[in-house]
Amino acid sequence: GIVSLISLAVLSYERYCTMTGTTEADTTNYRKTWTGIALSWMYSLLWTAPPLFGWSSYGPEGPGAMCSVNWHSKDTNSMSYIICLFIFCLVIPFVIIVYSYGKLLCAIRQVSSINKGMGRTREQRVLVMVVVMVICFLLCWLPYATVALIATFGKPGLITPAASIIPSLLAKSSTVYNPIIYVFLNKQVSKML
């Protein structure tokens, strides 16, 4: 799940850099792509390894069919980890996504002011794609984060195993939605289909 979140942030930043860069994209050089993938996995490992070394712990999630961070532990050790996880693996990636797509929209708006007809439709398509991606991101991850924070900081037993199933499944299925969004909202890809 964290790799998915970080990958979305890296992709949004990469898309912003590619679309606003002054040079033409080099489709034969995969160095930036592999660097982005490696950084996503290393950052994710940085934040998923601490429970293995004593900062919080892993345990069954929901009805016991899945494994996750032990959200129900009320000790300071676990709570501090969950706060850091929330900030560094949800809030910061979300800020990067909003920043990157916001700057991308500003750049497209500047170009469309020069080229009225073609630029306006491109701006609208990118705007729709950005809004859909951000909404999907929030719909997938906010319920999970909310349930996790309530389980951590709320009264014990407030979040039942059954109540945590749907937010968990939404979060874990988030990787499926972005390719679908790209396919249906990207004019170049939909022409190929």
From TrEMBL:
GO cellular component terms listed in the entry, alphabetical order: membrane
InterPro entries: GPCR_opsins, GPCR_Rhodpsn, GPCR_Rhodpsn_7TM, Retinal_BS
Pfam families, per database record: 7tm_1 (PF00001)
Membrane topology: Multi-pass membrane protein
Domain of life of the source: Eukaryota
One annotated GO biological process: phototransduction
UniProt GO MF annotations: G protein-coupled receptor activity; photoreceptor activity
Domain G-protein coupled receptors family 1 profile as annotated: residue spans: 1-182
Spans traversing the lipid bilayer: 38-58, 78-105, 126-153, 165-185
Keywords of the record: Chromophore, G-protein coupled receptor, Membrane, Photoreceptor protein, Receptor, Retinal protein, Sensory transduction, Transducer, Transmembrane, Transmembrane helix
Main location: membrane
Subcellular localization: Membrane
Similarity comment text for this entry: Belongs to the G-protein coupled receptor 1 family.
Name assigned to this protein: OPSP protein
UniProt gene name: Opsp_1
